[in-house]
Amino acid sequence: MQSVKMYTTAVCPYCIRAKQILKSKGVEAIEEVRIDMLPDERMKMMEITGRRTVPQIFIGDTHVGGHDDLVALDGRGGLMPLLNGTPS
Length: 88
Description:
Blueprint: E1 4-8, H1 13-24, E2 30-34, H2 39-49, E3 56-59, E4 62-65, H3 67-75, H4 79-83
């Protein structure tokens, strides 16, 4: 299974929901980067993604986007192949 990295903040309901979705798909470990505690990481996230909002989710080297992007990816059947390292 691919590694998962998520930029988050302490009080973010979309971050919590995204983690629940990923865990329900068998993801055991999520590398969380708390941008509310690490301002340099916030800047890095914005440079990499062009976005200011959390969560920002990476599966392997692929930037999935935020919660809604994750739900859309799952809805079109692309989440599990990406998690398993075989993007459709």
